[in-house]
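Troubleshooting: if your tokenizer reports a length mismatch, compare your output against this known-good record of 208 residues.
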Amino acid sequence: MTMALDLLTDGKASARTKIVLAHGAGLPMDSPFMEQFAQGLAAAGFGVIRFEFPYMRARRTEGKRKGPDRPQALLDHWRAVIDEIGPPGRLVIGGKSMGGRIASMIADAAGVKGLVCLGYPFHPPGKPERTRTAHLEALRTPTLIVQGNRDSMGKPNDVAGYNLSKRIEVLWMEAGDHSFKPTKASGRTNEQAMGEAIAAVAAFAKKL
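Known-good structure output:
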């Protein structure tokens, strides 16, 4: 695989289904969250591939904290990754927050097997009127959204009012925030929450 795309691989290269994950807006492809998901899904038998968008790669090489690329550049980069890995019919694509959102915008046209969004940013924090759901209404790709029920970018009451495609399944993580981390008062641990989320993604991908 080309190094220009900054790909990280886990699991078996010969796996029937490969899961391709993009990072969120603020943290790279090797953040603890992304590492845990990649390793967990690889242990479940999948080939897992992670990549970085150009702005995040520039942070590493130039040492400057840049904001996300323009939407078109993000979309084009996702398409390039799918073209490089292929075939799309064997791929489940998605990722953390922004990475999953951008994947959701190309999933149908790319013809991928499935879509997984880990903390979908249904709206900016504190701005529920600015929804990012229009393209989700007619989404045809089988989709799993894993969402903390305390997520500031989309709580149960918000999401219940959206007209989402019937191909979308939302799994709510008890007491979880945007990264599924539960409150101490819930009695749940972060390891427990992440384990449940990884198991759910693995089960979803296996049934496709």
